[in-house]
Amino acid sequence: MDSIQLAFSHERWFKLDTLFNSRTFSVQVYPKENPNFLLYHHAASNMIGVYDLHSGKLISTIKFRKEGENGVGTGVRAIHFVSFDSIYLFSPLAQQLYLADSSGTLKNRYDLLNKKYYALLGTTYPAFIRNNRIHFCAYPSPEQKPSSSDFSLLWLNLTTSEVGYSVNLSKEYDRGFWGKHNYLRPHHLFNEVKKVFIANFPNDHFIYLMHRNGSFQKYFAGAKRIGYLNPVSEAYTDDDAKAFALEAKQGFYSALFYDRWRNLYYRIAHNPTEDSSESRSDFGQISIILLDENLKKVGESYLPKDTYVIGASFITPEGLFLFNERKYDKNDDYLIYDIYKIQKRE
Fold first, then answer.
1. How far apart are CA 69 and CA 345, in angstroms?
2. Taking Cα atoms as reference points, which of 47, 45, 49, 74 lies closest to residue 63?
3. Do 40 and 53 meet the contact criterion of CB atoms below 8 Å apart?
4. Which residues pair with 153 in a beta bridge?
5. What is the DSSP letter of 68?
6. Which of 12, 23, 32, 340 is deepest in the core (most CB within 10 A)?
7. pLDDT category, 146, cuts 50, 70, 90?
């Protein structure tokens, strides 16, 4: 039975520079434990806006060159911010990773391109660094039918540049072909506070906690409105229209976030809808599944339809910040966030 829920509390406005718009794939807060800054990656401008979390003012910008000795090209779409001296930038199409500092000086570059697996990075695809390796959510080549023998995590050794893979896809992928899009891309989470890894797949009602011996224990984290999930077909198919229609009709899961201040997990569910527009990755009404520290489901809250961009969301001691696209459309001089807090369900 649900015992808690998310409830709207208040707004926070962040002033946009004239060079920026709201489109992003990566936002982070910094420092992690006691955040004072919002780091908003403006992909089109090759810049990071550094905002004061409390006042909403733009404090500074971090600019990256597209050409020259410190050039990172035009394809960077996501970042992993470690510190002002260590910022990873990722170009998904080229599968190139760059390491730079806040002056824009390029310190290293890495090639992740291979024929087997493709790395993912962004707000809903968080990277993490352990034992001198940076780990990415990943998916197998969409030109073949994957199975549970394929991997869903790609790692890069930051010293040797060696690339490797781990964490198998769930057994749900053995039931057929799930298309090339939302159902193929996992959204794993490494909980840096508890030092645990949780596997999270878009076509699976369960999430999986990894134990130290490498085994997994599964926990139900399903949405009330998402029923039994069927693959697109038994065999591989190029029918994208069919895949998008099925994803919309059935629903799917995406990001998993950890709230270190309330010791809760938030799993994002994209509930069934008839809208299968290929331009939208957030089909239908979004709900947030609330899980306690033991990964027990303790609530599910439904958000207003077609309102929030999950890829621009973040969490602070103040609550869950959700970027309101509708409000931005009415006033594009600001990034307008709705702040949600946890309350007991009556």
1. 56
2. 47
3. no
4. 137, 166
5. S
6. 340
7. very high
pLDDT digits (tens, 9 = 90+) for 299-330: 999 999 989 999 999 999 999 999 999 999 99
Does 31 sit behind a cis peptide bond, omega within 30 degrees of 0 on the bond before it?
yes
Q: Provide the 10 A C-beta neighbour count for residue 329.
A: 10
d(CA 236, CA 146): 9
Q: Which residue has the tokens 């306690």?
A: 292
> How far apart are alpha carbons 208 and 15 in whole angstroms?
39
Distance CA 41, CA 184 (A): 25
Answer yes or no: are the C-beta atoms of 287 and 269 closer than 8 Å. yes
- Identity of the amino acid at 72: V
Measured distance CA(33)–CA(129) in Å, rounded: 17
Strand partners, 106: 100
Contacts of 9 (CB under 8 A, 6+ apart): 319, 339, 340, 341
**Beta pairing, strands 252-259 & 216-220:** unpaired
| Nearest residue to 52 (alpha-carbon basis) of 40, 34, 36, 63 | 36
DSSP 122: B
What are the tens digits of pLDDT across the range 234-277? 999 999 999 999 999 999 999 999 999 999 999 999 999 887 66
Q: Which amino acid is at 44?
A: A
* Per-residue tokens: 11: 């707004």
**DSSP code, position 144:** S
Measured between its terminal Cα atoms, the distance across the chain in Å is 12
Residue written as token pair 């224990």: 217
